[in-house]
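Q: Could you fold this chain for me?
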Amino acid sequence: MIGIGIIGAGDFGAAHARAIKQVQGLHLVASCRGNNDALAAFTSEHGGRGYTDWRKLLDDKDVEAVLIASPHHLHAEMAIGAANAGKHVMLEKPMAPTAAACDAINAAVAAAGVKLMVAHLMHFALPCMAARQMLEQGTLGRPLVGSSWIIKLWMEHNRRDWHLRKATGGGMLLTAGIHALDRLVWLMDDDVVSVSAMLGAMSHDQEADDTALLGLRFAGGGLGQVQSVGYRNGAAGYVMDLVCEQATLRIDMDRGTMLGRETAWTDLPGSFEPNWMHAALVREWSAMRDAIADDKPVPVDGAYGRKIIAIIEAAFASNETRREHEIADAP
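A: Sure. Below is the predicted structure, expressed as structure tokens.
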């Protein structure tokens, strides 16, 4: 059994704990949260020891791998600390707020020889997996244009002050819109070379963005757009359209995946599951288990996680200069 420790025992840490429980070969042995009462409630429900200091959790000899689901600006310090302690790392998105911080994480992981997986959930969500499988078959031709969006309530029950500030890696784009970006980049299966973007706080009085519109140029000539909108009151949309040479695809997380041909949509069989997020987390942890136990490559590595952050950094720069910005290369 691989012993797992959760650093960041909050709402999404609990979602991970429920998934870990369903993966054979994994066992939650410890969790960390600064609030004693909240930590006690978490360990009472999910089991394992409780720590209020994440460094103490890393000292626990029974912890072989950690989930880091803490505020975004703490990701780098915690991931580097975990790697230096010889722990494998599942790192929630965003990998870190800056590409430089991602580079530091990747260097520490490489030096320590541990596994790092960045928890980009779309890679394990059934509608997205169905679309990827269709694209890999080759019958749709090359993806040419993609449009991906997440439009949702921003002030959810788990929203915290750090989500509202730039210095702590807050904002809708780094928190939730990153899913729409990741899904587009993964399914276009090409590198983004430049970004033009407009960001702002359109619906809320906060420093960080609640709205972002991104235009992407891909190395192979493809084009993409991303909408990241956190509304005050509305109804959610979590959809992506992909125009390929021979057909179109529509991914709707609330319906599944549809194939467009000859002016008609048809549902892809088996592309919808009601509780898709939990199922995706179970698949994510199953992949992490296999990477640790069988020394398999992780499906979403630090190089990919860094790529997504470099795009977002370029989007921030584009918004400031009102010009298209090229993507910074990894060292």
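A (continued): Residues 302-321 form the longest helix (20 residues).
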